[in-house]
Amino acid sequence: MWQAGRPPYFAAPLCFACVASSRCARAAPTPLFSVDNPQGIGHGNIVCVCVRFRGMGFLSNMAVRSKIIKGSIVLSTGQAVSQGCGFIRNIILARILSKDDFGLAATFAITISMFEMVNRLGVSGLIVQSKNGEDPHFQATAHSFQLLAGLASAFLIFIFAGWVSVFFNATEALWAFQILAVIPIMQGLGHLDVNRMVRSMRYLPVVLVDTVPQALITIAALPLALWLRDYRVILWLLMARWVMNAGGTHVYAERGFRFGWDKRHIPGILDFSWPLLINGFLMFGVLQGDRFLVGHFYTKADLAAYSVAVQLTLIPGMMFVSVVSAIMLPLLSAVQSNPVEFRRKYRTCVQALSAFSAVFAIVLIVAGEGIVTTVFGHKYAGTGVILGWLVTANAFRIIRAAPAIAATAKGDTKNHMISNIFRLSGLALGVAAVLCKQSLPTLAACGLAGETLATIVSSTRLSKVHRLPLGDTYLPIGAAFLFVAWSGVLALLGVSQWHWAIVSLITVGLSAASVAVTILLFQQLRSEMLSLALPFLVRMGLAPAKGS
C-alpha cells in the first residue's frame, strides 16, 4: 500500500499546516497565527494525529474504516469548535480593545511561536507513531524530553524578553513578555498519555484537552475585556488556556505521570525530532515572518489590522483543506501503485481546491472591506486592500496542498519542505519592501509572489518525480484565477465603496460563474460531484433510483 520500506500512515484528518510543513502525518502541525492563540489555529493535539497500521491494507478492513471515519468526525468537529472559539474571541477583543493594544497582543503570539520548541519537536506525534509508544519507559523518557524543551523555550523567552520588547517597540510591556515564559513550561508538563490513546483511535481526550479550555476562555473574554480593556486581557487568557490545557491532559490520562531517561530511546527521539525542529523554524518564517516585520517596522495599530486580515484568510481555507486532505490522502495512498487511478483522484483533488480557492478569494477581494468593518468594527476600515493581497496568496497556498497531499500519499515528504524553502523568497522580498518603507499592501503582495513560486515548484517537482502532467495542476489554477483576476480589477475600480447590494450581487455572480466554469471544463470534478449528489437527488425524488 505504501512505498517499500515506509510504514503505512493515516492522518485523521491531516491538517493544512501539516501538509504545508512536510510533517507527513507524523507529528503535530506547525503553529499558525491567532492573536490570542500562539500555538495556532488547530493546535497539534486536535488537528493532526496519525495512526500506524500494520499488516495488510487498512482500507480493506471495514472495522478500521469505521473507526477512521468516526475519528475524523470527532477531530473535525473539535477543530471547528476550537477555530470557532478563537474567531469569536478575537472579534470580541478586536471590538473592545484599541488597535494598539490588539496589535501589542499579537506580538505575544509571535514571540511564543518564535521561541517555542515543545510542539516543533513533535514528541506528542512520536508517541502515536513509534512502535514503542505503549512502553511506559518510552513515555516517561518522552515526558522528560518534552519538559526539557519547555524549559529551554521558557529560558529563551525570559532572557530575550527585553530585546523582544525593544524590537516590537513595546518596552512598557516587558513584564508581560517575561511572563510568557510560563506557557512553554505548561506545555512541557503536559501528559502524553492522551496522545498514546490515539494509537487505538480514541480521539475524544485530545479533542477535549484543546476545546474545553478554548470554550472557557472564550466565555471569559467578554467580561475580562470589559474590566481590563487593554492587552492584559489576552495575556491572562493565554495563561489560563495553557494551565487548563496542561491540567486537562492529566485529568484524561489513564497512566500515572512520571519522568524517566532511558538511553535506549534517546537516539530515536532525537532522530524523529530534529528535522521537525528545523522545519518548524522554517515554517515560522513562512507563516509569521511578515507579521514579525510588521511588528518592528510599522505601528502596533498596523499590526492589529494586518493580524485581522491574516485571520480572515486563514481559518476558512484551513478548515476546507483539512476536510479535503482527510478524504483524499487515504484514497490517493490506496491507489499509489495504479498511475491511472492516482492521476484521476489527484485531478479531482486539485480541481476541488482550485474551485474553493477562487470562490474564497473572490468573496474577500470584492466584499472584504465590508466584511472586516462589519465583523471587527469600523476602526479597521481600510484593511480590505491588505486582505485582497493576503487572500490571493492564501488561495495559492490552498491549491499547493494538492501536490503536497499527492506527494505525501507517495511517501514523499521532501516536496513540502522544498516548496516552503522557495516560499521564503516572499519573506526576502518583504524585508526589501519594509526597508524601502513600502506600504502594508506591498508587503502582502510579496507574500503572494512567494506563494506563487512555491506552488510552481511543488507542482513541477510532483510532475518530475511522480509523473503527473503539469496540465493537471495548471489548468484548474488558470480557470480559477481568471475570475480572481476579474475581482481584482473590480477592487481597483473601487467596488468596496459601492452599495452593499451591488457588491453582494457581484460577489455571488462571480463566485457562481467561477464554480460553473470549473464544473463545465473539468469532467472529472463534474462526475465526482454528480456521484456524491445522486443519493440526495434520489431521496428528494429528483432523480430515478438505480435500476428503476
Q: What low-confidence regions span 5 or more consecutive residues with pLDDT below 50?
A: 1-60
The level of helicity is over 70%
The gyration radius over C-alpha positions equals 23 Å
Strand order of the largest sheet: 1-2
Structural features, described:
- The chain has 548 residues and is mostly helical.
- The chain is built from 21 helices and 2 strands.
- It has a two-stranded antiparallel sheet.
- Helix 4 packs antiparallel against helix 13.
- 55% of the residues are buried.
- The N terminus is likely disordered.
Descriptive labels:
mainly alpha; two-stranded antiparallel ribbon; globular; 548 residues; 2 domains
Summary?
The protein is mainly alpha-helical and 548 residues long. The protein is built from 21 helices and 2 strands. It folds into 2 domains: 286 residues, no CATH class; 214 residues, no CATH class.
Walk me through the topology.
Blueprint: E1 9-11, H1 16-20, H2 44-47, E2 50-52, H3 62-96, H4 99-115, H5 118-121, H6 123-129, H7 136-167, H8 174-179, H9 182-188, H10 193-196, H11 204-228, H12 232-251, H13 266-297, H14 300-334, H15 339-376, H16 384-409, H17 414-435, H18 440-466, H19 471-492, H20 500-521, H21 523-539
